[in-house]
Write the structure tokens for this entry.
Amino acid sequence: MNTIISLHSYIAFLALSVVLLAFVNALNGFLTGREFIDSRDRKLSLAGVAFFHLQFLIGVVVYFTSAKGFHAIAELGIGGLNAAARLTALEHPVTNIIAVALVTVGWSRHKKTSDNKAKFKSIALFYGIGLLMILSRIPWGQWS
Ligand code: HEM
């Protein structure tokens, strides 16, 4: 069980870094109006969405194996959770599921248009919002 939590903790760093890079790259592309290059822009955005999906899947396993996930709710009930338990058992998972869905929407939408600016816009907007949501609900105090 500790291995899967450690994995969730390490991949979080990779996933957040790659999505941040993809967001900054897309914002730059949108603002400069440059061409969307598949070998660079598409690959970076794909790496971002792939890392987030991997992190999401590991998160689901963590949720049902860690004492700070579903077990906390089963034991204490939603009303019995203190702020720290509420963060890991409720706020972090729910917010991140929505955030991962938004990043996926950004990725899918960019594929549906051939317009360079629209591609960058879709990625910058959805990856940016997803990233902000996730960063707002990381259990920073316990991240090691
Ligand atoms: C893709 C977005 C996600 C990121 C970046 C992320 C990141 C993190 C980080 C940095 C921690 C603290 C790790 C540590 O203690 O060292 C954590 C803990 C946790 N995460 Fe996630 N997570 C994500 C998605 C999810 C999802 C979707 C779920 C559940 C469905 C989840 C469930 C949990 C739980 C239960 C803990 C507490 C584990 C424990 O300390 O026992 N996470 N997450």
User: Anything to note?
Assistant: The chain has five helices and no strands. The pocket of protoporphyrin IX containing FE is lined by residues 5, 8-9, 12, 15-16, 52, 55-56, 59-60, 62-63, 66, 68-69, 88, 92-93, 96-97, 100, 134, 138-139, 142-144 (CB under 6 Å). The chain has one domain: 2-142.
